[in-house]
Amino acid sequence: MSALAGPDAASAPRPVAPSPEVVMEVRGASKIYLSGPNAVAALSDMTLALNAGELTGIVGPSGSGKTTFLMIAGLLEPPSTGVVHFRGRPIADPQTRLNSLRDFRRTHVGFIFQKANLIPFLTAVENVQIALEINDVRPKLARERARELLAQFGLGHREDNYPTQLSGGEQQRVSIARALANDPVLLLADEPTAALDGTRGRQVMEVFRALADERRVAVGVVTHDPRWSDIFDRIVEMSDGRMVSERAGGVAGHL
């Protein structure tokens, strides 16, 4: 103990770190798929929270349940068992009709999938714009917002091109812009950099980092790429449908 410390220093209470602000939490979730006479467990008793202002990496081999977790956390699939909570309140369980949550998903959740899934007969800017117009944003404002997002991803010169006129990496960047169009509080990405080179991939991950830091978005990213471990707050490893480890990422590890 330092000589400068008073006699009660050892017994003085230590400051308590604030509890994380949980945006979406999957509790005790399992997902069972029927394959002929067999039942396949894609997810088993999974509990994981995605927190505001935190960038979480989800890693593991193919078939480990990573994408299934994203689908359940993003309210695209119901769990076979367990409950999904949004900001502390239950929002989905095995009996939930997820079509009833369609408007909620559009407003609160952004998705980025392995494939861009762009609408082929719409230009790049229209693919982003439509995500805003569905949420009743006026066409003029929607187009301005879409153009800003495309420019942010280095696609300002490609906004009037159709998907077939874009490279795979460019298509994926359009899909990322579309996912961010409505300022979601939860962003879920499944291998978002798989079609990008190292430079573009790093740019995308830095956008996710900024969303977590500056807008307190909860971001969950499934990836096989070890290059991004330094940018995550937390890394969750999955295997055989279960979470097998959780550790601090490079960002949290250097705080």
Automatic annotation (TrEMBL):
**Has keyword Nucleotide-binding?**
yes
Indicate whether Transferase appears among the record's keywords: no
| CDD domains with a match to the protein in the record | ABC_MJ0796_LolCDE_FtsE
Molecular function (GO) terms for this protein are:
ATP binding; ATP hydrolysis activity; transmembrane transporter activity
Q: What keyword terms does UniProt attach to this protein?
A: ATP-binding, Nucleotide-binding, Transport
Q: Name one GO cellular component term.
A: plasma membrane
Q: Where is the ABC transporter domain?
A: 24-255
Q: Which family does it belong to?
A: Belongs to the ABC transporter superfamily.
Q: Cite the PANTHER family for this sequence.
A: ABC TRANSPORTER ABCH.1, IMPORT ATP-BINDING PROTEIN
Name recorded for this polypeptide: ABC transport system ATP-binding protein
